[in-house]
Amino acid sequence: MIKIIAVIVGLTISINGAAAPIVDLYGDESAKGEKILKKYSKQVSEIEVAFHNASLSTNFSHETKFEKEFLKRNQLIETIKKEGNYLYANFGTIKYVNKNHEYEYTTIEVVKKDQPKRLLFTSPMIRKPNYKPKNDLIDQMIEFGQIELKLFEAHQMESDPKKIVCPVYHCFLGFSDPQLKPYLRVFNTGAIKEKQLILDTLSNDLNPERRAAAAFLMGHFKDPNEIVTQLSSHLDDPDSGVRNNVLRVIGTTIKKAKMTQIDAKPYLKLLESTQATDRNKALLVLSTIARSPQVRPIMIRSGGKNLISLLRLKQPINHDFAYQILKTLSGKDLGETNYAAWENWLSLAKKKLV
Q1: Which residue of 216, 255, 264, 344 has the lowest C-beta tally within 10 Å?
Q2: What are 231-272's pLDDT values in tens digits?
């Protein structure tokens, strides 16, 4: 599946069009992983473009063409899984939009047989269209998100996070547009009067779209500690879209509230996810707390190896954050691709912590 990321790191939405992406692999840094990447990167790139184009087709043979490309995609996944002797294999493409420039990066995700715990993160984004609208606060947030998306795709909203005015703990494009402005009062009022609905929806609603919307509504709560505490219990939601929203709100909340006393372990665990969007949101949180004297040794011991693995990726939402965090933890800039130097630093840093 191809997703899009705006200037705002972490936004994932459907896109139109596709071009040949840059391909890398996460989960196996051995010679076998390098061989798999070299052998299949071209095929993966081609099938991602063909699969996505088929999903957008509107001609009479659309369904047949889509099914054909879907089958070819699954066959390639199974081939990679079998040849690598992996427990799991998949791939996904992210498209980056920065003003007039567009870039695409695909990551082949694999899980080796000696890492079965990583299978916890293999659940895809689930969307079931048969739920009936309830016309409540949650559905209003879903409606709001749809309007935001249309404005963004039409380039009618400011997308630079440095220029967006966000009066609450989490925003995507803010509320400056006349179509969005009325929702600010609705959500702020609802976060107080319908708090239990929001919490119950996030915990119990079977519709992942409603759970994801409830997570965004929590960005309108007044107490940042409550936001982080409540959302932290949903980091393992089975739907990657829900996890994405939960992590987004946690990340922006702790940054805006300048919170540093955060347990790093759940976010370090998410660095092993098979979802690039899980990893980048966890990295967003970790980048905010990396300077904490209490957190730094934990991140070095438990996350240093994974941070260097993510640094090796070309995928910007993983590579860039990993590089930033490593510079913060080390107080040095050893270069974006000098992996041996970072591994040497990590080894020395761990010894100093003993």
Answers
A1: 344
A2: 999 999 999 899 999 999 999 999 999 998 899 999 999 999
> For position 20, what pLDDT does the model report?
66
Q: Position 139: which residue type?
A: D
Residues ≥6 apart with Cβ < 8 Å to 284: 9, 10, 247, 248, 251, 255, 321
The rounded distance, in Å, linking the Cα atoms of 212 and 205 is 10
CA quadruple 290, 292, 293, 295: dihedral sign: negative
pLDDT of 287 = 95
Q: What's the residue count for the chain? A: 354
- How far apart CA 94 and CA 276 sit, in angstroms, is 9
CA 280 to chain centre: 5
Name residues of the chain where pLDDT drops below 50: 4, 6-18
Among 312, 242, 249, 319, which residue's Cα sits nearest to residue 279?
A: 319
Q: Are strands 88-98 and 101-111 parallel, antiparallel or unpaired?
A: antiparallel
CA dist., res. 283 & res. 278, Å (int): 9
pLDDT of residue 207: 93
Q: What is the structure's pLDDT at 23?
A: 95
pLDDT, residue 165, reads 86
Report CA-CA distances (Å) from 198 to 61, 184, 193, 324: 42, 16, 10, 34
> Between vectors from CA 142 to CA 138 and to CA 145, what angle results, nearest 5°?
140
Q: Which tokens in the block code for residue 304?
A: 């240093």
Contacts of 286 (CB under 8 A, 6+ apart): 264, 267, 268, 299, 303, 321, 325
Q: What is the pLDDT of residue 308?
A: 98
Q: Do 268 and 303 touch, CB atoms closer than 8 A?
A: yes
Q: What tens digit of pLDDT does each residue of 118-153 get?
A: 998 776 555 555 678 888 999 999 999 999 988 887
No. of helices (H) and no. of strands (E), the chain: 13, 4
Reported as type and span, the H/E element at residue 131 is none
How far apart, in Å, do the first and last CA atoms of the chain sit?
Answer: 44
